Amino acid sequence: MLLTQGAFIPVGAVFDVFQVIGKVLSEAKNDALIVDAYMGPVVLTDFAPLAPEKVAIRLLTDSYYTKPETLKPAAARWVQQYRDIRPLETRLTAPRVLHDRLIIIDGAQVWSLTQSLKNFADRSPASVLRVEDDVATQKIYAYEQLWANAHAL
Question: Rounded to two decimals, what is the model's pTM?
């Protein structure tokens, strides 16, 4: 599947979600920052394994909307099993800081997700869209600042 500008995903097309997000993550060489205010363990069970080995996975989520009691055990098991093969770091922002859902690849490409990964295209159609370079640069800067100010899960 060639993904240049994005994809539209109909309701219930769970395999399409898997393919599209997998294509985005497979482009990473060093780092993938996944930003999702409503992040759950599905990001680790269904999507993070699609990134190449040795690519650092960084998860940035909102401390108000995310349930640490479900994400933290999944992240701990991931780190225990994969260690440096699939590095993972998870951080929480201050409450209600996040709204965008993004995947930032190698600090260069930004992909905007119209829904949370935990239930992407479950009840309504969704899209994954590549953000144009001028806006992407601004988003990368902003989300790296949020990452720097967030605290570990």
Answer: 0.96
